[in-house]
Amino acid sequence: MSAPEASAPSPATLISTLLQTVEDHIIPLTQSGVASGSKLFGAAILRKGTLEPLTVATNNERVSPLLHGEINCIQQFFTTTFPDTATRPDPRAECIFLATHEPCSLCLSGIAWSGFKEVYYLFTYEDSRDLFSIPYDIEILEEVFRVRSVCGQESDGQLAERALYNRTNKFFKASSFKDVVGERGDDQEREKLLKEIERVKARYDGLSEVYQAGKKEGAVSSSVWK
Ligand SMILES: [Zn+2]
């Protein structure tokens, strides 16, 4: 039997708490990760009712190219934080998944397979490509998964216009922080939250510089796609 669904926090409380989780828990871990050659992607699993962070992890591609922040976080949630199935919060009803960057195809599958239904991310794929020089989330979805329609005569333009994946699907709903704030009716509150989002995003500028500099200097990493 699955646990009853926890009540949802207000969008303002949700976004403020997710931003605080990024600043207080994920960024400090990211600082040591990028300094040792790993990418700056991080994740956290929070308890849905209280928004308390249960597991926090960042990318560890120094060890394995599959240890993306989200996958590392999921692995730790199941094996280290809650190894006992009896006490583990139900990912479907009692957890929220936070990713600093919109999850790649590997991590989207990991999230679906683990049962997390509510996913929020700070940076979009376009941000990862344009602000962080990491284009592979988009490229893998386009090159590996985007199948051209065989019956219709789909043009290159039509193909390019298709969404890269279903943000709302049977397994989860993925929303950017901005999407959530955009739904707010109160203009003043929306402006305040959007400013907060930009302020926390800006904290990644320096982290990106450290990662890019490490790449040039040949930092140790198991990743092929840097
Ligand atoms: Zn990933």
Description:
The longest helix is centred in the N-terminal third of the chain and has 25 residues, at 11-35. The chain has a single domain, classed as Cytidine Deaminase, domain 2. β3, α4 (105-114) and β4 (118-123) form a beta-alpha-beta unit. It starts with 10 loop residues before the first helix and ends in a 10-residue tail after the last helix. The radius of gyration is 18 Å and the shape is globular. The protein has a five-stranded mixed beta sheet with strand order 2-1-3-4-5, with helices on both faces. The model has no long low-confidence stretch (mean pLDDT 91). It is built from ten helices and five strands; from the N terminus they run αββααβαβαααβααα. 49% of the residues lie in helices and 13% in strands. It is an alpha/beta fold. The structure holds zinc ion. Zinc ion (ZN) binds at residues 68, 70, 103-104, 106-107.
Radius of gyration: 18 Å
Q: Write out the CATH superfamily name.
A: Cytidine Deaminase, domain 2
Kindly identify the CATH topology.
Cytidine Deaminase, domain 2
On the 0-100 scale, what is the average pLDDT?
A: 91
- Structure class: alpha/beta
Bound molecules: zinc ion
What proportion of the residues form beta strands (DSSP E)?
5-15%
Number of strands: 5
Please give a handful of descriptors for the protein shown.
single chain, about 230 residues, alpha/beta, Cytidine Deaminase, domain 2, 5-stranded mixed sheet, 10 helices, 5 strands, about 50% helix, about 15% strand, globular, binds zinc ion, Cytidine_deaminase-like, catalytic activity, CMP/dCMP-type deaminase domain-containing protein
